[in-house]
Amino acid sequence: MAHHIVDDFALFSAGVAAWTGSRDGRRGAADLTTTTPRPAWCRRGVALAATTGWMLAAYAACVAVVFGVTASQHAWGSPPWWLGAVGAAGVLAACAIGFTVGVLWPSRFAAPLTAAAVGVALIVGASASGTSIYLILVPGTGNLDTDIVTATGLAAAGTAVALAGTAQLAPDRVGYVIPAFGEAAADGMVPYTPVCQASPVGVCVNPAFRAQLPQLDGELVPFFAELAGLPGAPVRVREISSVAGMYLNWGGQISGTPPTYQFALSALGSLAGTGETAIITFIGGNSASGGTPAQQAVELALLRAAGSDEGASWLEPAAVTAAAGRFAALPAAARHAWLVTHLAALRAGHVSLEQL
Amino acid sequence: MMVTPARSSARLRGASTPAGLPRLIWLHAASRRVPGALVVLAACAGVMRVILASRWIVPGGPGSTQLPAMIEGAVAAVVVVTTYNPFGESESATGRWLPWLRAGTALAVTAAAIGLLSVAVAGAALPGGDLAMIRNTAGAAGLGLLCAGVVGGLLAWIGPLAYTVIAVIGIGERWTSPWTWPARTGLDRGAAICAGLAFGAGMVLIAVRGARNCVSD
Questions:
Q1: Which range of residues forms the domain containing residue B194?
Q2: How far apart are CA B70 and CA B169, in angstroms?
């Protein structure tokens, strides 16, 4: 919830606030409004407060719908109020940024560009390989009222950055914990009892995905058939949180005893790619590229044997696809026997393309 | 400088002839802030280039497709806000060239946006390739032009950006509908048809009716 609602609302909050902030300048009324008896920060503060208020009201309505629908579908746990507060803070920040841009740049292009810039920043923040983003605000009006507001904003922003800097990844990797707030700020998962299906592949998922369990099991069968009997091959499947999946290049991993394929379902429950990830992470580990060229070739061959063409989009080198074709052309029994013999060396990256 | 009625009418007569057409086109473009839009589009192209050249995004992840899609949406949003005119309904009484000017301006700014983005992504590994970039930009611009006919030019940016937000979700969720064309590959025929339909419909609407004039703008 936090990711989708904050992303969607922050973008439009910034755009709408920029549109409101640029209104006086856009209409050529900036000089007129300076003659009013109220100081500039008061006039603009009212406009910002109104914009922020409406956006928060819309956000609260959406959160209420999400919580209401969730409560009607699932009986366990309690609403994660903290996520709602985090989203509200995101809306506040986006409105402030957008309004500031609108005031400083009263152009017809201010609103769309501000909204898009916030969208780009959110995508970069969610996808970047780094762990910290620091925003630097540069005041420069020389006006006392504005300086007070700016100083207050900087102090608040500095406090927020300092607190965010103390955030630690929760031990179970389902979210972050800010020590100063204690457990109240832990955005962990609501406790649940997983629902499982024993055959043909043993799969356990969050009860929210109960309806998709048979379809998920069917999705995994051809991929697990390719790995069956190999040393260290996964024999169980367990869903992990989408937040934990964000730290895995392929959204899944194989770990534990007995080997268990842990994967993340997206918030909207899309099953696409869940089977492919089992083969890729089993052969190539958590490597973003899918592993060494030989590992990629074996992955591609196994994916094709399982009836998937997902691998073709990221395996571009001709040598890899050629080797994959050679390996896939082997009879299934010969392919399996080769893997049993060479799997350890292959997973360790000691096999070359020519050896396939 | 004061413009006398005689000189003003002479200029209007001149605008209806081929000799006065370049000036008419320039005035129409200037009233839509097209020069400013070109500067902004160049800046967007620069941002695209920086992002593709940087290592901010995990390669192969959804972000590597979502980020270009967001910038293409932003470019489309810039294109559609140029449909706003400061003259209101009175402009519709100025001559028979107006539908052609509106369509030509929208087409030229869209082409300029695609051209600038093409220069920006030249030599870089853009997910989906140049065809996907052209399709995404034109399709989102078409949606924005349709939006301009409904809510006016200044707020038309909401259309392409709202669509882009949906498309970004679609990329992450691997939606396969051709109507979420940014989630499809560059050579996908269905996605190209849907984007083309959106762009064509937007062009027709903006040529025939123009952007809606809103007093609140």
A1: 5-208
A2: 11
